[in-house]
Amino acid sequence: MLVIVAPGQGAQTPGFLGPWLDLPGLADRLTAWSDLIDLDLIACGTTADADEIRDTAVAQPLLVAAGLAVAEVLGASPGIVAGHSVGEFTAAALAGVLTPEQALVLVRERGLAMAKAASVTETGMSAVLGGVEEEVLAAMAARGLAPANINGAGQIVAGGTLEQLAAFKAEPPARARVIPLAVAGAFHTEHMASAVDRLREAAAGLDPADPAVTLLSNRDGEAVPSGAEFLERLVAQVASPVRWDACMATMAGRGVTTMIELVPGGTLTGLAKRALRGVTAVALKTPDDLEAARAALGSDEER
Predict the structure, then answer these.
(1) How many of the other CB atoms lie within 10 Å of CB of 121?
(2) DSSP 3-state assignment of 127?
(3) Each residue of 156-181: b (16+ CB within 10 Å) or e?
(4) For a tag on the chain, would you pick the N or C end, based on fewer CB atoms within 10 A?
(5) 148 SS3 class
(6) What is the number of alpha carbons within 13 Å of residue 101 lying toward its C-beta?
């Protein structure tokens, strides 16, 4: 059983798209999408610096476009698709719920809306590594922080104001490390409520199709058979926690044997190697990784 996964914001690095542009048709595809959403995706993925692509309004469409373009090159037929946070837009397009163009127009609006929401109050996110989950969550709540991501494999991401996060880092939970993340706001928390309203308006005219393959939701890790319901979940998840731990539990329960993480891969396969023992996990970072991915696909078909 193959699962294709798409990473979320923070996976991007300066120049990550450059090596992929030599593949036939990929640059043309990205140029057309750039015109569609009025954002130079090729420049963002090649010459833009870290601060430029840290911008939520840039990072989100860049990640979705890169993932969709590379998925076309890979040409695999997964049994399950899932995305982490903004990666759910990539997954929705791979499953046929949205067209690539619909996903990009909507995620561009999402990025702009979240950037605006983040400008209201100085907020951020910090990764909490280790500790006992119940104790970590209790310590976060005591500081007024919310669990933005529960990623499994001993990783939780806290979201809140910069003042709350600083106090939390100064007195971390027992046996846990708190690492501030280079993000522009407290995503997947109440601080993004205004972005939900704006995104819902943008999605109102869409007529999503039902998924053609099993499509997992960040809300609870469950497969969602209705395109309309998945679209509503896409809108709501802007201000609600990402339960990637639950997504991985569903993958395990459904017998996933191979995971391929779309560009810029690494984060989700890293979690899988700790939480999904025995699963072959391949991260697509450069075109050189396509050979390993296709070898994994061949092994998966032989099982």
Answers:
(1) 12
(2) strand
(3) bbbbbbeebbeebbeebbeebebeeb
(4) C
(5) strand
(6) 7
In angstroms, the CA 29 to CA 67 distance is 12
One-letter identity of residue 112: L
Q: Give dist(CA 68, CA 75) in Å, integer.
A: 11
Residues 262 and 259: their CA atoms lie apart, in Å, by 10
> In angstroms, rounded to a whole number, what is the distance separating the alpha carbons of residues 126 and 124?
7
**DSSP annotation string for 4-63:** EEE--TT---TTTTGGGGGSTTHHHHHHHHHHHHT--HHHHHHT--HHHHHSHHHHHHHH
> How does pLDDT run across 132-187, given as a tens digit for each residue?
999 999 999 999 999 999 999 899 999 999 999 999 999 999 999 999 987 889 99
Q: What are phi and psi of 107, to 5 degrees?
A: -70, -30
CA-CA distance, 29 to 153, in Å (whole number)?
36
pLDDT (tens digit per residue) in 288-301: 999 999 999 886 66
Question: Which residues carry out catalysis?
Answer: 85, 188
Beta pairing partners, 83: 6
